[in-house]
Amino acid sequence: MKTRKFVLSEKEMPEHWYNITASMTNKPLPPLHPGTLQPIGPEALAPLFPMELIKQEVTSEKWVEIPDEVRDLYAIWRPTPLYRAYELEKVLDTPAKIYYKYEGVSPAGSHKPNTAIPQAYYNKQEGVKRITTETGAGQWGSALSFACQHFGIECEVYMVKVSYDSKPYRKLMMNTWGAKVHSSPTNHTQAGRSILDMDPNSPGSLGIAISEAIERAASDEHTKYALGSVLNHVLLHQTIVGQEAVKQMEMAGDMPDIVVAPFGGGSNFAGISFPFLRLNLEEGKHIRCIAAEPASCPKLTRGVFRYDFGDTVGMTPLLPMYTLGHNFVPAPIHAGGLRYHGAGVIVSQLLKDKLIEARSHDQLECFQAGVLFAKAEGIIPAPEASHAIATVIQEAIAAKISGESKTILFNLCGHGHFDMQSYEDYFANKLVKHEVTAEDIADSLSKLTTPEIA
Amino acid sequence: MKTRKFVLSEKEMPEHWYNITASMTNKPLPPLHPGTLQPIGPEALAPLFPMELIKQEVTSEKWVEIPDEVRDLYAIWRPTPLYRAYELEKVLDTPAKIYYKYEGVSPAGSHKPNTAIPQAYYNKQEGVKRITTETGAGQWGSALSFACQHFGIECEVYMVKVSYDSKPYRKLMMNTWGAKVHSSPTNHTQAGRSILDMDPNSPGSLGIAISEAIERAASDEHTKYALGSVLNHVLLHQTIVGQEAVKQMEMAGDMPDIVVAPFGGGSNFAGISFPFLRLNLEEGKHIRCIAAEPASCPKLTRGVFRYDFGDTVGMTPLLPMYTLGHNFVPAPIHAGGLRYHGAGVIVSQLLKDKLIEARSHDQLECFQAGVLFAKAEGIIPAPEASHAIATVIQEAIAAKISGESKTILFNLCGHGHFDMQSYEDYFANKLVKHEVTAEDIADSLSKLTTPEIA
Questions:
Q1: Gap from B84 CA to chain A (nearest CA, Å)
Q2: B452 partner at 20 to 30 Å CA-CA among A320, A371, B292, B444?
Q3: Is B10 part of the contact surface with chain A (CB cutoff 8 Å)?
C-alpha cells in the first residue's frame, strides 16, 4: 500500500529555528529611523517587544535553540503531517509528484501558532501581563489568543471592523480562548478616535488596527505588542515548518525541485522555503522557491524595492522592502491574510538577489484551484492557501506539457472552516477579478517620500 | 520532554474491523418484520443496501477484513492521534490520567468518514450510481459527500430544514464535495409532500428526512440508501478507532480503567469502546465503558428495552433497542448528532446485560465542559464531543476525591468549527437546560404498540 502521509514523532521535532541571514551573502539592509534616516538599534524596539525577541530580530547566529517549553507546546499539534497528493496528481493527470505540508492541524487552524507560542512564551518570561495585536482575517488573532491563554497572559485583539462584522465565528474562537476582541477603530485609543472623528462609520483597516494595538502597548509598561508576520523573528519561528518538511521529504525518499507557499508578509513562505533555500545557499542545490501572492496586492511581482513604513499610518521604522506603498489599499479579497502592502525585509533581499521567485494569481483562479483540491484531497483550504495551490497547478501542468517528472512541495497553511462564506460567494458567482492597474500602483508609489535604494 | 501524542504510521493501521457480537454470550435479538412480527432475513434489506454491507450487518465472524482500497483512503487522515490531556489534568488538579482519541482530523471533521468511506466503496463495487441519506447536524452528510466524491457516486442529502437554514456552512461543505443538498421536507417525495400538505412551514425532522431518503432509494434501482449510525455494519466500521486506541495506549505504556464516548445511535461509542470491551469479554479485564448521552434525549438512562422502529414514521424493521419511543421529539439542543430516540441493537443488548454503563448530561454542563477543554487543550470540541468531556470531568473529580489514579480515555469525535453559533448562544446565555420530565417519557412510551421484550 502506498504511503500518503509522512509523519514524524514528537522526538523528531527540530530543536532549533533556522536563521537564513547567516547563510546570505548580501545581508538585508538595516531599518532606518524615519526622522534621522539613520540605522536604528535594537533598543528602539524595546517599548514594544520583549528583549529576547529583539535579540532574535537581529541575531547573526544560524541556529536559534527552541526552548523546551515551546517545543512542549508545539507538541499539541506538531510535527505536522506531510502528504503526497496522489488524488490531486490523478485529477491533473501530471507526471509531477506533488507533496504538501499541512499546517491546518493546529488548534487555530493555520501555521500562525508556530510564532504565537514562542512570542507569548518570551513575553511571559519577561513578566508581561498583556499583549495587544491586530488581526484581519482572524488567523493571527486566533493563534495569539490560544497562545496567551496557555501562559495566562491577557490578550487584546484589534480586529478590522469589516472582518469583525463578517467573521463572527473567528471572533468567537478568540473569545473561547479568553481574548478580548475589539472592533477597530475603537474609541479606546487616540488613533481610533481620530479616525472615528473623521468617519464614524469607518470600516477600519489593518493599518488602523496596528496603530491602535501599538498605541495601547506603548502606553502601558506591562503591555507589549505582537506581530504575526513580516519581522525577522516571526519568519525565524516559522522555519520549523520547512525543517520538518526536509526530514519528511527524506522519509519519502524524494527532494523537491520546486517549493511553493502563499505570500502575505512573508512568514508563511519563509517557514517552508528557508530550510530548502539553505540547501541552495550552502550545498549548491537548485530548488526553485516560489511565493504566490494575490493579483490584487502584487508587491513582489509589481512593487518596488525601497524603504517604506511597515504600517499604513507610518509609526514603524523604515524597512527595506518590496512595497506597493504603505498607503496602498488592496481590494477586499477573501484571502485577508495576504492583503499587506509590503514584504518582509529578508524575503525582499532574497527576491532582489533573484534567489527566490514570485507569481501572482487572481482570486477566481485561486478559488477554482481550492475547490479542485478539496474535491481531490478532501481538505478544504483557506483562501490564502489556495494561492499556493494555483501556482502548483500551473507547475504540474507545465510538467505535463514538458513531460518532466518534477517534484513539487507546497505549504497548505490552513483549512477553510472559518472561510466558508467566501466559498459560498464563489459558488454564487459573487466574486470578481481584482486586477490592479499600472496607474493604481504608480499612483500609490508616487506618494512615497521614503528613501529609495540604489 | 513528555509525550503528548501517540502516533501510529499508516503501516500500523488495523487490517480488520472487530465484530463484537462474536464475543458476546447473549447475542442481540433479531429484527422483526413489522407486519408479521417474524424475524427478517438479510434479503429484506436488499432494496436499500449493497449485499456486502448486508452481509456485514449479519455476520458472525469476529474479524472482518478492511479492503485495501478502504485502508488506502482511510490513510488520508488515519491513523488518528491519541493525546495525553496534560493541560486538562492540570486544570482539574486530578490524579487521573486522561487520554483522548482525536477524530476531528478527518476532512469532514469527525469520526463519520470511518463508515462513509467503506459504505461508498461497497456501493461502488456493486455498481450503485447514487446514494441518498439524511443529515441533522451535518456531520454525517458531510462525511458521505466526501466519500461519494472519491468514488464518483452521486450523493443526495436530505438535510433537516432547521439545520439547513441555521448551518449554511455545513451545506456548503457538502456542495464543495459535489453533493446535492435538499432542505427536508421537499416536494420531490411522497413523504415530503404529505408533510408539506399538512404544514407548508414544517421545520422538518430527522424522521422525515430518513423517510424521504429511503423513499428515493427504494424507488430507483441505481440508487441506494446509507445510514451513519445505529446499524451493525456502521458500528463495525467505527471499531478502527478503538483498535488504534488499544495500540496507542500500549505505546503510552498504559491501559484505561474507563472508556467514555458520546452516544447518539451508538457508532461513536461502539467505535472506541468495543475493542476495549473485547478485553473484558475475552481476557477478563474490567474496563468500564460509559456512554454519555444528552439529558434531553436519555434513551439509555431513562428509556425502555423493547422492539421499536428505527425511524419516526415507521418504515424500518422493528429493532430490539433501548428507546424513548419512535415518536419522541427531543429538544432542539445543539448536539444534533445525539438527538435520536433509540440505541443501536448491539449496544442495547450490552447495556441490558450490564456490560456497559450510561450517563446523561444537560447541555449547559456540556458547554461548560467544552469551553474548559478548549481553554486547556486548544481544540474546540463539537457539542456532541462535549458530552463525553462532561463525563470525563466527573470521573476525574471522583478520582481526586478518592485519591485514586484512574486512567481515563475518551473519544473526541469531532471539532466544533461548524458549531461556533452554539458557542455564541452559550456565551450569550441563550441556552437553557432541557430536562425531560417523567411524564414526557411515559407519554411517548405509552403510544408504542410495538412488541415488548420479556
A1: 10
A2: B292
A3: yes
Bigger pLDDT: B338 vs A281: A281
How much is the pLDDT for A454?
Answer: 81
pLDDT bracket for residue B168 (50, 70, 90): confident
Burial readout B320-344 (b: 16 or more C-beta within 10 A, e: otherwise): bbbbbbbbbebbebbbbbbbbbbbb
Taking contacts as CB-CB distances below 8 angstroms, the residues of chain B near A374 are: 176-177
Question: Cβ contacts (< 8 Å) between B109 and chain A: which residues?
Answer: 417
Q: What is the mean pLDDT of chain A?
A: 95
Distance from CA of A141 to the nearest CA of B (A): 14
What's the whole-number mean pLDDT along residues B222-227? 96
State the fold for domain B68-109+232-444: Rossmann fold (3.40.50)
Q: Would the CB atoms of A427 and B172 count as touching at under 8 Å?
A: yes
The B residues from 141 to 180 touching A (CB cutoff 8 Å) are 146, 149-150, 168-169, 172-173, 175-178
What angle, 0 to 180 degrees and rounded to 10, lies between the N-to-C axes of helices B267-283 and B232-251? 60
Report residue B206's pLDDT band, with 50, 70 and 90 as the boundaries: confident
| Residue among A330, A294, A111 nearest A207 (CA) | A330
Full DSSP string of B411-448: EE-BB-TT-HHHHHHHHTT-----PPPHHHHHHHHHT-
Name residues whose C-beta falls within 8 Å of residue A35's C-beta, 6 or more positions apart in sequence: none
pTM of the model: 0.95
B309 forms beta bridges with B318
Helix (H) or strand (E) holding A88: helix A86-92
CA–CA separation, A271 vs A346, rounded Å? 12
Interface of A with B in 238-267 (CB under 8 A): none
List of residues 6+ apart from B138 with CB closer than 8 A: B159, B163, B167, B170, B171, B173, B174, B336, B418
